[in-house]
Write a structure and sequence with these properties.
Elements: H1 3-16, H2 23-34, H3 40-58, H4 60-75, H5 83-104, H6 106-109, H7 116-136, H8 148-159, H9 168-178, H10 183-205, H11 207-210, H12 218-245, H13 249-267
């Protein structure tokens, strides 16, 4: 993989990770269109460390307050006393489903799930769910009003992001809207919830860089991760600002168009459904 390819893939990851349009879909489609080899699920997971660090940097103050209150709650044996402490535990609970699903479906994630037909289907199907959520949601709750039930439902939704094309931010945003959260609140919680899962996945896949029989080179990974951090930080700020005054209909339309385009390109043989 060239330096330019690493920068471009990092840009795609950083930009699309926080928009409900699926970073994994774009990391499959764009290399195929350019005639590049599929970077693979391991590469995609590792450069997500960059976007995870972007979330940590952007929400540093919030994360400090959450960590502090969780620790104090454990020390004083009142783990759920404050809203910040509860939010911390909500993130823990919400991470369990994707962790279990990721370990259980590992072979599918690295194989059949990467078919562009699967990607296209997920793009279109989740666009429909997001449109439904936009129409049915109350849009009147903030992150502070989250309950254990909300945390579990949004966590289960996050597990669906293991299917390329579903979009981690997209499925959690959709679940947040169905729970009655405002668009900005749903996105904010979605970003916070992403930290444990994406960081764990990226660190786990580092075995492909440093482990025995490593198949990925350090330099492209490092550059791609740095690129995803820079563009991810900008994407977070833009997305939160955008959702204060706009709906997600533009993203819904984009998902449907992209899904149809992928089906046409694959079915006509322009790009392969699976990397050879």
């Amino acid at each position: 993989m060239s330096i330019l390819q690493s920068i471009i893939l990092g840009f795609i990851q950083g930009l699309t990770e926080f928009l409900p349009i699926s970073s994994s879909a774009h990391l499959r489609v764009f290399p195929a269109l350019f005639g590049w080899k599929d970077p693979g699920s391991a590469f995609s997971a590792i450069i997500q460390i960059g976007t995870t660090l972007a979330v940590i940097a952007y929400f540093a103050k919030d994360l400090w307050n959450i960590a502090r209150d969780c620790l104090l709650g454990l020390v004083h044996r009142k783990p759920f006393e404050t809203q910040n402490a509860r939010l911390g535990w909500f993130i823990v609970v919400g991470t369990v489903p994707i962790g279990v699903a990721g370990l259980t479906l590992k072979d599918f994630i690295e194989g059949p799930f990467r078919s562009l037909y699967v990607v296209a289907g997920a793009l279109i199907a989740l666009a429909g769910l997001l449109l439904w959520a936009e129409k049915k949601a109350a849009h009147d709750r903030q992150v502070e009003s989250l309950t254990w039930r909300d945390a579990l439902i949004i966590g289960l939704a996050q597990a669906c992001a293991l299917i390329p094309g579903a979009s981690r931010s997209g499925v959690t945003l959709t679940a947040g809207l169905f729970s009655g959260l405002t668009r900005e609140a749903a996105a904010r919680y979605s970003f916070l919830l992403s930290i444990p899962a994406t960081l764990a996945a990226g660190l786990f896949e580092l075995r492909h860089v440093f482990g025995e029989g490593a198949s990925l080179e350090v330099t492209p990974i490092a550059i791609g991760t740095l690129s995803s951090f820079v563009f991810g930080l900008a994407a977070i700020a833009w997305m939160l600002k955008f959702l204060r005054t706009h709906t997600t209909k533009a993203f819904i339309t984009y998902r449907i168009i992209l899904g149809i385009l992928i089906i046409v390109l694959v079915s006509t043989g322009v790009i392969p459904a699976l990397d050879a």
